Amino acid sequence: MDNRFYRAFEDRHRGSRELITGRLEVYLPFLAPLKALYPDAAVLDIGCGRGEWIELLSREGYAAAGVDLDEGMLEACRALGLPVRNDDALNALRQCADQSLIAVSGFHIAEHVPFEVLESMVTEAARVLRPGGLLILETPNAENLVVGTNNFFVDPTHERPIPSLLLSFLTDFKGFARSKVLRLQEAPDLHDPQRKLGVMDVLAGTSPDYAVIAQKQSNAEVLGALDALFDRDYGVSLDQLASRYDQALEGRLSKIENQMASDVRDILTNLQAEQAQRVQLIEATFERERALLQKSLEQMQQHAERLQAEMNQSLSNAHHWYERAISFEQQLDILRRSTAWRITAPLRGAAHMVLHPTQAKAVLRQSLRRVVPHARLWLARRPAIERKVLATLSRSPWLVAKLRALLKPDPAEAAADASDLPHGVIDHAPLTPRGRDIESALRQAMTKGNN
């Protein structure tokens, strides 16, 4: 790879010297107690790059030196008069004496070497550090989802992302007393708990870089000088952002739910009010209809009462006329049973005959036909009177003819009774057998009188 290419790449994507120097100041508090304990304060920076860290340490009074394989980077360091040389990181560590350094640092070098080389580097660092000395390894933070899936692979010299859990475990496994993960370079406003988080904050807001600071075994006094620094939390983790986002989302959802619940309550309240109004309207309408129905029923009842009264009056009148009719019938019956009625019967009969001659003739014929047989029988039992009657009739042929005409039956009556009489006998009246015997005797008497 062209050395100029990688330096140009670093200048564009890593940031300016001033930016990087400002970021590296976070490590100075960890070195200060060691500087007081070990005045020579020797520090080796492997993969020193443009030399920002060496320049900062030199300014702070540390005896810092650096190694790198990129001559383009080293030229920039030499231009600033920094103590650097072209060497392999692992080889440079192996050339250091035991317990000769207070710190070994490597910024964005762990992701450039195979894991076996990184493991050897950690082993050599543990050897060359003084008791309580520090190993500082900074690398891209794969916990940041955008870095781990995209930005990390922009650099063509990167091997693979190294999770903080793996790098921290590696230092612990190689015998360091303790290690601390520092998450770095996140946006400052992400520390504000009131800041609203979006999806991109969760995806790309986690600290894009992290460092593992591992401290070598030492006495309690040396370790205790850095306790406060190791007890602090640094940066922003993905878990924190996700948790905050979930809480914010739950808060927004809760707010939405509360608003929806409030809206639903308002809607229900409005619906209940509208329903109450409709119920009132229905009740008022029902009350009006009930009043109208009640009025109609009262009118119908009054009409029925009037009809009942009229019916009662009619019944009373009918009863009155019935009583009058009964009284009239009773009076008429008394009249018919009276002597005057019987005495005036002939006069009524004569008047009826005068007024109705045809009907009177038929009635007279029927009466004579009923009376004559009895009269004949009566005369037959009284010969003296019979002779006088016959003598009187013989002197009045006209009267005999009239009597014969009246007693002569109608053809229709004769035909109706002919089927019930013996051959040659004409029945003039519906007589019993005894009556017919009497009638036969009377006929013989009349025949005798005519002779």
List the helices and strands and how they pair.
Blueprint lengths: L2 H11 L3 H8 L3 H10 L4 E5 L5 H8 L3 E6 L2 H9 L4 E3 L2 H6 L6 E7 L7 H14 E12 L4 H5 L14 H10 L4 E7 L14 H6 L4 E7 L4 H5 L2 H5 L6 H100 L1 H5 L1 H11 L1 H24 L2 H12 L2 H11 L3 H8 L14 H18 L1
Give structural notes:
With 451 residues, the chain is α/β, with parallel strands linked by helices. The protein is 63% helix and 10% strand. It has 20 helices and 7 strands. The chain has helices spanning 3-13, 17-24, 28-37, 52-59, 71-79, 89-94, 115-128, 145-149, 164-173, 199-204, 220-224, 227-231, 238-337, 339-343, 345-355, 357-380, 383-394, 397-407, 411-418, 433-450, and strands at residues 42-46, 63-68, 84-86, 101-107, 129-140, 178-184, 209-215. The protein has a 7-stranded mixed sheet with strand order 3-2-1-4-5-7-6, sandwiched between helices. The longest helix is centred in the middle third of the chain and has 100 residues, at 238-337. It starts with a helix and ends with a helix. The model is unreliable at 416-429 (pLDDT under 50).
Q: Which labels suit this protein?
A:
rod-shaped; 451 residues; 20 helices; alpha/beta; 7 strands; seven-stranded mixed beta sheet
Count of separate DSSP helical elements: 20
Envelope shape: rod-shaped
Helix proportion range: 55-70%
pLDDT below 50 for ≥5 consecutive residues: which ranges?
Answer: 416-429
Mean pLDDT across the residues is 85
Strand content: 5-15%
Report the radius of gyration as a whole number of Å: 77 Å
